[in-house]
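Quick one:
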Amino acid sequence: MSIMLDRRQALLAGAGALAAIPSVLGAGLARAAGEFPSKTMQVLVPTGEGGGVDQAARAFNRIWSKYLGANFEYSYFPGASGQVGYEVFVAKREPDAYNILFGNIGPEMIMYATQKVKYKYPEDFTYIGSMDVDDSVIWVPGTSRFKTIGDMVEEGKKREITLSTSRLPHPSTIGALALAEATGMKVRMIPYGGGGPARSAAITGEVDGCATFLSSSLGLGDQARFLTVFNDTNRAPELTNNAPPVNQALGTKIPQMSGQRAIAIHAKAVETYPDRVKKLSDTFKQVFADPDYKVVAEKAGTPWEFIQYGDAVACQESAKEFVELAERFRPLLSASKG
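Output:
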């Protein structure tokens, strides 16, 4: 297995030279015979239409199409925290580099490690590039009496704290459970099957607070008060009422809990069509230097502070880290289902 991964990393890591940005290149430009891509790219999204991943994918691909020279079509297969989408992608989509999956490394690798799936990583698929880093947070409704994360922890030593989350296999879920383990706080995670319902449950007071990615909870104004960020620094203090990093606030040693929206392709495509994969990787990277990307990304709800290019090697390292985190916190994830 390590030989396969090393070979793919070598193929993909070599695709990083940033080419000159073409001044005129549209998705409808006629392609030379046999040139890749010569038809529409097919994007599978393992979450719901109109969600955060879908919006981020469409914003990114709007710019990517200029450099790749192709249009994109989308299909959606939500269910089982992303498992349904990955199984459809691996088993039913042609491994020809025209089929790509646009997902989120953190929650979907946790899902992979904790659920009984019908595919294997990295034998069946691999990530070739990521577009952002989105930190996990805990926030409470603006009317909550919890002013700090310390307030919540102290209350949680007296009674069970309830936190909504979009799906149970999620970095923010592990973050909250790790926080409880480190401090003695009692917590129950309640999955709502999506970011919108999870946010609504917290705003209305159905639960004590919400554990989620930061980007999915921006724009709530006074309806939300952020208590902590699961990272060493708060990359967007002005958007989060200057909420402190959890380890800084409580003296804990909780790992960084972030998500990275990324594209994946079939492992067979890397082996069979290295030139196609190189073009995907090269043009993917070019998007980040395009000033138009900042505009469309922010319109789609992703602050520019979160945008961060990650190459194939970085994606594989992140995927491996989340599998290890999931294994480490598997007992807590299992207990939280009860």
